[in-house]
Amino acid sequence: MLNRQMLNSLNGLIAFKETVLKEVQECRLYTANYPLLIEHILREAKLYRQMIMELERKGTVCAADIRSQELFWNRIMMEHAQFIQGLLDPSECELMETANGFAKDYCRLLEEAKEQDQKATYALTEKTLQTTKQYQQFKTAGTEGITGCDIRSIILPLLADHVLREANHYLRILEEAQKRQGVKWN
Question: How distant is the alpha carbon of residue 5 from its chain centre?
Fold first, then answer.
Protein backbone atom coordinates (compact mmCIF):
# COMPACT_ATOMS: atom_id res chain seq x y z
CA MET A 1 0.00 0.00 0.00
CA LEU A 2 2.87 2.36 0.86
CA ASN A 3 4.51 1.62 -2.51
CA ARG A 4 1.28 2.40 -4.37
CA GLN A 5 0.92 5.68 -2.46
CA MET A 6 4.53 6.54 -3.27
CA LEU A 7 3.95 5.74 -6.94
CA ASN A 8 0.98 8.11 -6.99
CA SER A 9 3.07 10.82 -5.35
CA LEU A 10 5.99 10.22 -7.72
CA ASN A 11 3.72 10.32 -10.75
CA GLY A 12 2.36 13.64 -9.52
CA LEU A 13 5.87 15.02 -8.94
CA ILE A 14 7.05 13.84 -12.35
CA ALA A 15 4.02 15.34 -14.11
CA PHE A 16 4.52 18.63 -12.22
CA LYS A 17 8.25 18.81 -13.03
CA GLU A 18 7.58 17.96 -16.68
CA THR A 19 5.05 20.82 -16.83
CA VAL A 20 7.48 23.21 -15.14
CA LEU A 21 10.26 22.21 -17.54
CA LYS A 22 8.00 22.69 -20.57
CA GLU A 23 6.87 26.10 -19.32
CA VAL A 24 10.46 27.19 -18.64
CA GLN A 25 11.64 26.00 -22.06
CA GLU A 26 8.80 27.93 -23.72
CA CYS A 27 9.53 31.09 -21.64
CA ARG A 28 6.12 31.03 -19.97
CA LEU A 29 7.61 30.42 -16.53
CA TYR A 30 10.77 31.83 -14.99
CA THR A 31 12.71 30.28 -12.14
CA ALA A 32 16.07 30.57 -10.43
CA ASN A 33 16.58 26.86 -11.17
CA TYR A 34 18.55 25.75 -14.18
CA PRO A 35 16.47 23.79 -16.71
CA LEU A 36 19.17 21.10 -16.37
CA LEU A 37 18.39 20.90 -12.64
CA ILE A 38 14.73 20.26 -13.40
CA GLU A 39 15.74 17.52 -15.87
CA HIS A 40 18.16 16.14 -13.25
CA ILE A 41 15.36 15.89 -10.67
CA LEU A 42 13.12 14.24 -13.26
CA ARG A 43 15.74 11.58 -14.04
CA GLU A 44 16.18 10.79 -10.35
CA ALA A 45 12.42 10.64 -9.77
CA LYS A 46 11.92 8.34 -12.77
CA LEU A 47 14.67 6.00 -11.55
CA TYR A 48 13.05 5.88 -8.11
CA ARG A 49 9.65 5.18 -9.71
CA GLN A 50 11.20 2.39 -11.77
CA MET A 51 12.67 0.85 -8.60
CA ILE A 52 9.34 0.97 -6.77
CA MET A 53 7.53 -0.54 -9.76
CA GLU A 54 10.08 -3.36 -9.85
CA LEU A 55 9.63 -3.89 -6.12
CA GLU A 56 5.88 -4.13 -6.65
CA ARG A 57 6.22 -6.57 -9.59
CA LYS A 58 9.00 -8.81 -8.28
CA GLY A 59 9.02 -8.22 -4.54
CA THR A 60 12.65 -7.12 -4.76
CA VAL A 61 14.82 -4.58 -6.50
CA CYS A 62 17.48 -6.28 -8.59
CA ALA A 63 20.83 -4.64 -9.02
CA ALA A 64 20.98 -3.39 -12.59
CA ASP A 65 24.09 -4.10 -14.59
CA ILE A 66 27.00 -1.95 -13.51
CA ARG A 67 27.35 -0.30 -16.92
CA SER A 68 23.85 1.23 -16.85
CA GLN A 69 24.31 2.19 -13.19
CA GLU A 70 27.58 3.91 -14.04
CA LEU A 71 26.08 5.74 -16.99
CA PHE A 72 23.22 7.02 -14.82
CA TRP A 73 25.29 7.99 -11.78
CA ASN A 74 28.25 9.39 -13.73
CA ARG A 75 25.81 11.76 -15.40
CA ILE A 76 24.34 12.69 -12.02
CA MET A 77 27.83 13.32 -10.59
CA MET A 78 28.81 15.39 -13.65
CA GLU A 79 25.70 17.52 -13.26
CA HIS A 80 26.37 17.98 -9.54
CA ALA A 81 29.80 19.38 -10.42
CA GLN A 82 28.25 21.71 -12.98
CA PHE A 83 25.64 22.91 -10.46
CA ILE A 84 28.25 23.38 -7.75
CA GLN A 85 30.42 25.42 -10.09
CA GLY A 86 27.43 27.57 -11.03
CA LEU A 87 26.38 28.18 -7.43
CA LEU A 88 29.77 29.13 -6.02
CA ASP A 89 30.61 32.79 -5.56
CA PRO A 90 32.80 33.97 -8.46
CA SER A 91 35.54 34.75 -5.93
CA GLU A 92 35.90 31.02 -5.17
CA CYS A 93 38.13 30.47 -8.23
CA GLU A 94 39.95 27.36 -6.97
CA LEU A 95 36.74 25.60 -5.96
CA MET A 96 35.15 26.52 -9.28
CA GLU A 97 38.13 25.06 -11.14
CA THR A 98 38.00 21.89 -9.04
CA ALA A 99 34.26 21.48 -9.66
CA ASN A 100 34.84 22.06 -13.37
CA GLY A 101 37.59 19.42 -13.31
CA PHE A 102 35.21 16.87 -11.81
CA ALA A 103 32.57 17.73 -14.42
CA LYS A 104 35.15 17.07 -17.13
CA ASP A 105 36.28 13.83 -15.45
CA TYR A 106 32.74 12.47 -15.37
CA CYS A 107 32.11 13.65 -18.93
CA ARG A 108 35.17 11.65 -20.04
CA LEU A 109 33.99 8.62 -18.06
CA LEU A 110 30.60 8.85 -19.76
CA GLU A 111 32.20 9.01 -23.18
CA GLU A 112 34.49 6.07 -22.42
CA ALA A 113 31.58 3.99 -21.13
CA LYS A 114 29.59 4.61 -24.29
CA GLU A 115 32.49 3.38 -26.42
CA GLN A 116 33.42 0.25 -24.45
CA ASP A 117 32.02 -3.23 -24.40
CA GLN A 118 31.13 -5.15 -21.24
CA LYS A 119 34.63 -6.66 -20.87
CA ALA A 120 36.24 -3.23 -20.63
CA THR A 121 33.74 -2.11 -18.00
CA TYR A 122 35.81 -3.45 -15.09
CA ALA A 123 38.77 -1.15 -15.76
CA LEU A 124 36.45 1.79 -16.29
CA THR A 125 34.63 1.01 -13.06
CA GLU A 126 37.97 1.16 -11.26
CA LYS A 127 38.59 4.66 -12.67
CA THR A 128 35.04 5.63 -11.75
CA LEU A 129 35.48 4.36 -8.20
CA GLN A 130 38.71 6.34 -7.72
CA THR A 131 37.19 9.51 -9.21
CA THR A 132 34.09 9.15 -7.04
CA LYS A 133 36.16 8.69 -3.88
CA GLN A 134 38.00 11.94 -4.66
CA TYR A 135 34.73 13.67 -5.51
CA GLN A 136 33.15 12.46 -2.27
CA GLN A 137 36.07 14.03 -0.37
CA PHE A 138 35.55 17.30 -2.27
CA LYS A 139 31.83 17.22 -1.45
CA THR A 140 32.54 16.44 2.21
CA ALA A 141 34.91 19.41 2.47
CA GLY A 142 32.41 21.55 0.58
CA THR A 143 29.55 20.62 2.87
CA GLU A 144 31.68 21.40 5.92
CA GLY A 145 32.83 24.68 4.34
CA ILE A 146 29.28 25.73 3.53
CA THR A 147 27.84 24.85 6.93
CA GLY A 148 30.86 26.47 8.64
CA CYS A 149 30.43 29.60 6.52
CA ASP A 150 33.96 29.22 5.10
CA ILE A 151 32.85 28.95 1.46
CA ARG A 152 31.15 31.79 -0.34
CA SER A 153 28.24 30.50 -2.40
CA ILE A 154 24.50 30.41 -2.81
CA ILE A 155 24.52 26.67 -2.12
CA LEU A 156 22.03 25.79 0.59
CA PRO A 157 23.44 23.51 3.32
CA LEU A 158 20.65 21.02 2.62
CA LEU A 159 21.68 20.86 -1.06
CA ALA A 160 25.33 20.36 -0.10
CA ASP A 161 24.29 17.50 2.18
CA HIS A 162 22.09 16.02 -0.57
CA VAL A 163 24.86 15.87 -3.19
CA LEU A 164 27.23 14.39 -0.59
CA ARG A 165 24.69 11.68 0.29
CA GLU A 166 24.31 10.84 -3.41
CA ALA A 167 28.10 10.49 -3.76
CA ASN A 168 28.09 8.17 -0.74
CA HIS A 169 25.25 6.17 -2.30
CA TYR A 170 27.13 5.88 -5.59
CA LEU A 171 30.26 4.70 -3.78
CA ARG A 172 28.18 1.95 -2.14
CA ILE A 173 26.89 0.90 -5.58
CA LEU A 174 30.41 0.76 -7.02
CA GLU A 175 31.81 -1.10 -4.02
CA GLU A 176 28.94 -3.60 -4.12
CA ALA A 177 29.59 -4.19 -7.82
CA GLN A 178 33.22 -4.76 -6.93
CA LYS A 179 32.22 -7.44 -4.40
CA ARG A 180 29.84 -9.13 -6.84
CA GLN A 181 32.57 -9.30 -9.45
CA GLY A 182 35.06 -10.65 -6.93
CA VAL A 183 37.49 -7.97 -8.02
CA LYS A 184 39.41 -5.71 -5.67
CA TRP A 185 40.23 -2.30 -7.14
CA ASN A 186 42.51 0.12 -5.33
Answer: 25
